[in-house]
C-alpha cells in the first residue's frame, strides 16, 4: 500500500532496553524536546517499519498494515501536538517550582572526557573506604566528639550554613553525575537551576541514560551523586579534627551534618524520588515506579471514597506493592515534615514558620507538579458517594475526638545517675597526680591521688607546734598547775587540728570498692581540683541501679494525677517497673531563658549499676487516659509553650 512520508519519524530515536529476566522496554525519544516515551511492542514495531519506509525500504512498505499505520500516525500526531504546546503555550509563572535551563552541556562533554576517565574509576571507591577507616579511627580516639554537631542541627548557624553552602555542594554533586554520564558515553542535555520556593538548586539533565545506557551504567550514574556526597561528608569529618578555631569547626561540622543527613534522609533514600530512587528502580527493573505507584494510589483512593463506584482497587500483586510504596512514601514525608516542623516552627522570630512552609512545598507540592497524575473523572452516583464518604469520615473524626480515650505517653531518655549517687568527687582540694583509667575495679584499687603542698606544710607545722606544746606542758605540769592547765588545753587543740589535717591529707587518695570506674574526660595531670569537683563516676556491681532523666514541666500535672504504667527499654530489652520505684524531684533552679522550673525523674531497676555502664535507656511513662480532643489541646498548648520559649531565647541571643 502507498504510505505517505512522515518527517517526524526521522526525529525519533527508537531503543530496545533489555534489562534481563525477559523484561524488555520499547522506548522512543523525541530528539527535539528530549521527551522519552514507553511504547507497546506493537506500536514500537509500527514506528520502526515507518522509519524503514522513509529510508526507502520497499519490503517494509509492503508489510505495513492499515492498523499499524493508523497507530503510528496517531502517535506522531500526539508528539507533534506536544511540541506545538511547548512552543505556543506560555507557562504560568510559578514561584513554588521552576526549572530554568541555562546551558547545553553536550558540547562540553569532549572537554570533560579526560577528567571523567580519571575520576570515574575504582580508585575513588578505595579512597572512600580509606577515608571511612580514618574517620572511624578519629571517632574512636575522640569519643565521637563531632557528633555534637547534630545537637545543633536546627541552630541559626547550621541553617545559615545550609542556605549558603547547599548550592555549591549541589554543584559538586551534579558534577559527579555529569562526569559519570560522560565516562559511559551518555549525552548530557541541559544544565540549569531548579527554583524551589525561590531557593535555587543546580541540576544536570541525564535523562538520555534511560535510552542509551546499559543498566549497570545507569546505576553508576544515579549512584555517583551519593558517592560524591559521602566523599564530601568524609572530608568534612576529617577536616573537623584538623582545623583550629571554633568558627571553622562549626562551619565544617555543619557541612558534615548537611552532607550526611541529606544523603541518609533524602538523596540515598529510595522512598524519595532522588538518586536512591533511581538506583532502586534499576535494581528491581521497574522504571517510572513513582508515577505508576501514584496512579495506583489515586485509583485506590477514589475507589474507597466512592464505595467502589469509580476508580479501582489493586488486582495484581505488583499493584499492591506499588500501593504500599506510595503509602510508605507519603507517611515518610509526613513524618519527616512533622519532626523537622515541630523543631523549627517556634524558632527564629517567625522565620521557622517560613522554613517549615518551604519544606512542605519541597516535599509535597513540587513532586505533585513534577509528576502530574491524570484526575479521575467522577459523575452522578460516584460523586455523591464521595461526598457522603467525606462527611462520614468527618463525623467519625468528631466522634472519635469526643469519646475515644487514650493514655498520655511520654518517652523519656534516662541514664545512670553519674552526676549524683555514683559521682566521685575530690574530697579535698589539690593537684591531680594520678587518675585510674576506665574499667573494672577490685576493692581497694586506687582511683585518684591528689597533692596539696599547703596541707602537707600545715601538717608539718602542726606537728612541730604540738611537740613544742607537749614539751612546755611537761615543763610546767608539776610546778605551776594553772600554767599546766593552759598548756594542756593548747596540746589538745593542736592534737585536734593535726587530726583534721591528717584526715584531709588522707582524703587526697581515693580507693574503690567492687565495680566499674568511669573517669571524667579532659582531666590532665597537675590540674587543680577544688573540693567537691567531679573526678568521674563509680558504678558498683551490686545493688539496684538508679536512673535519672530530665522531666518536662508540662507533664508534671499528669504525673501528679497518677501514673498507670512504667516501662524501661535498655540494651534491646524491655522491663516493666513498679510505679512505686519512680519519683519526681524538683530541682531548685529556674530556666534563665524560658522561665520554667526544672524537674528530674528518678527510678530504680534491679540490674546492678556496673551492668548498665554506657547503656542509656528509654523510659516509657503512661498517664491517665483522656479523650483524643484533650490530647489535641494538650499538644497545641505544648506547641505554644515551645513557641514562647523559643521567642524569648531568640530575643536573648539576638
UniProtKB/TrEMBL annotation:
The main location class comes to membrane
The record gives the membrane topology as:
Multi-pass membrane protein
Q: Provide the coiled-coil residue spans.
A: 484-511
One CC-aspect GO term: membrane
| Ranges where the Peptidase M50 domain occurs | 169-243
Similarity comment text for this entry: Belongs to the peptidase M50B family.
Cofactor(s) listed: Zn(2+)
Organism, as annotated: Pseudooceanicola marinus
Q: Name one Pfam family in it.
A: Peptidase_M50
The name on file for this protein is Peptidase family M50
| Highest rank taxon of the organism | Bacteria
Name the GO terms of the biological process aspect.
membrane protein intracellular domain proteolysis
Compartment(s) of residence: Endomembrane system
Note whether Transmembrane occurs among the keywords: yes
Q: Which UniProt keywords apply?
A: Coiled coil, Membrane, Transmembrane, Transmembrane helix
Membrane-crossing ranges are 121-140, 219-241, 247-266, 322-342, 348-366, 387-404
Molecular function in Gene Ontology: metalloendopeptidase activity
Amino acid at each position: 500500500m502507498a504510505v505517505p512520508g512522515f518527517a517526524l519519524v526521522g526525529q525519533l530515536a527508537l531503543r530496545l532496553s533489555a534489562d534481563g529476566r525477559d523484561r524488555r522496554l520499547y522506548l522512543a525519544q523525541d530528539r527535539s524536546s528530549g521527551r522519552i516515551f514507553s511504547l507497546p511492542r506493537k506500536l514500537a514495531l509500527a514506528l520502526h517499519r515507518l522509519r524503514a519506509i522513509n529510508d526507502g525500504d520497499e519490503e517494509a512498505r509492503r508489510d505495513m498494515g492499515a492498523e499499524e499505520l493508523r497507530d503510528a500516525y496517531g502517535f506522531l500526531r500526539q508528539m507533534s501536538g506536544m511540541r506545538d504546546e511547548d512552543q505556543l503555550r506560555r507557562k504560568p509563572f510559578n514561584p513554588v517550582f521552576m526549572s530554568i535551563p541555562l546551558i547545553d552541556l553536550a558540547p562540553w562533554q569532549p572537554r570533560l572526557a579526560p577528567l571523567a576517565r580519571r575520576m570515574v574509576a575504582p580508585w575513588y571507591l578505595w579512597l572512600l573506604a580509606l577515608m571511612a577507616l580514618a574517620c572511624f579511627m578519629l571517632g574512636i580516639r575522640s569519643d565521637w566528639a563531632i557528633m555534637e554537631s547534630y545537637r545543633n542541627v536546627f541552630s541559626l548557624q547550621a541553617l545559615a550554613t545550609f542556605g549558603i553552602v547547599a548550592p555549591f555542594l549541589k554543584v559538586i554533586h551534579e558534577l559527579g553525575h555529569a562526569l559519570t554520564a560522560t565516562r559511559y558515553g551518555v549525552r548530557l542535555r541541559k544544565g540549569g537551576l531548579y527554583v524551589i520556593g525561590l531557593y535555587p538548586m543546580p541540576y544536570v539533565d541525564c535523562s538520555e541514560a534511560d535510552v542509551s545506557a546499559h543498566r549497570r551504567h545507569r546505576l553508576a550514574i544515579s549512584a555517583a551523586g551519593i558517592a560524591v556526597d559521602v566523599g564530601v561528608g568524609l572530608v568534612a569529618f576529617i577536616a573537623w579534627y584538623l582545623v583550629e578555631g571554633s568558627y571553622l569547626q562549626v562551619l565544617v561540622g555543619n557541612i558534615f551534618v548537611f552532607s550526611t543527613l541529606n544523603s541518609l534522609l533524602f538523596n540515598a533514600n529510595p522512598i524519595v524520588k532522588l538518586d536512591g530512587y533511581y538506583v532502586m528502580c534499576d535494581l528491581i527493573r521497574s522504571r517510572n515506579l513513582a508515577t505508576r505507584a501514584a496512579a495506583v494510589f489515586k485509583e485506590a483512593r477514589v475507589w474507597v471514597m466512592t464505595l467502589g463506584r469509580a476508580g479501582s482497587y489493586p488486582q495484581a500483586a505488583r499493584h499492591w506493592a506499588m500501593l504500599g510504596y506510595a503509602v510508605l512514601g507519603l507517611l515518610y514525608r509526613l513524618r519527616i515534615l512533622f519532626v523537622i516542623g515541630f523543631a523549627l516552627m517556634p524558632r527564629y522570630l517567625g522565620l521557622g514558620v517560613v522554613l517549615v512552609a518551604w519544606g512542605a512545598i519541597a516535599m509535597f507540592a513540587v513532586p505533585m507538579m513534577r509528576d502530574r497524575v491524570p484526575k479521575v473523572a467522577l459523575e452522578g452516583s460516584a460523586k455523591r458517594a464521595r461526598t457522603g464518604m467525606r462527611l462520614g469520615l468527618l463525623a467519625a473524626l468528631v466522634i472519635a475526638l469526643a469519646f475515644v480515650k487514650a493514655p498520655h505517653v511520654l518517652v523519656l531518655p534516662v541514664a545512670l545517675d553519674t552526676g549524683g549517687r555514683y559521682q566521685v568527687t575530690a574530697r579535698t582540694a589539690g593537684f591531680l597526680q594520678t587518675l585510674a583509667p576506665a574499667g573494672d575495679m577490685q576493692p581497694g584499687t586506687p582511683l585518684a591521688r591528689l597533692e596539696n603542698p599547703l596541707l602537707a606544710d600545715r601538717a608539718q607545722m602542726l606537728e612541730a607546734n604540738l611537740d613544742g606544746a607537749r614539751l612546755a606542758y611537761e615543763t610546767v605540769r608539776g610546778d605551776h598547775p594553772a600554767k599546766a592547765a593552759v598548756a594542756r588545753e593548747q596540746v589538745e587543740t593542736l592534737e585536734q587540728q593535726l587530726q583534721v589535717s591528717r584526715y584531709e591529707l588522707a582524703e587526697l587518695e581515693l580507693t574503690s570498692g567492687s565495680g566499674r570506674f568511669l573517669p571524667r574526660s579532659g582531666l590532665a595531670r597537675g590540674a587543680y581540683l577544688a573540693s567537691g569537683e567531679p573526678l568521674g563516676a563509680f558504678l558498683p556491681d551490686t545493688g539496684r541501679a538508679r536512673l535519672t532523666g530530665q522531666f518536662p514541666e508540662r507533664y508534671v500535672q499528669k504525673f501528679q494525677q497518677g501514673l498507670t504504667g512504667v516501662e524501661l527499654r535498655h540494651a534491646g530489652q524491655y522491663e516493666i517497673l513498679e510505679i512505686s520505684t519512680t519519683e519526681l524531684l524538683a530541682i531548685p533552679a529556674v530556666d534563665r531563658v524560658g522561665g520554667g522550673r526544672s524537674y528530674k525523674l528518678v527510678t530504680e531497676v534491679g540490674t546492678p549499676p556496673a551492668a548498665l555502664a554506657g547503656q542509656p535507656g528509654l523510659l516509657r511513662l503512661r498517664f491517665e487516659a483522656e479523650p483524643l480532643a484533650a490530647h489535641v489541646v494538650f499538644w497545641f498548648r505544648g506547641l505554644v509553650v515551645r513557641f514562647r520559649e523559643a521567642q524569648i531565647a531568640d530575643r536573648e541571643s539576638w
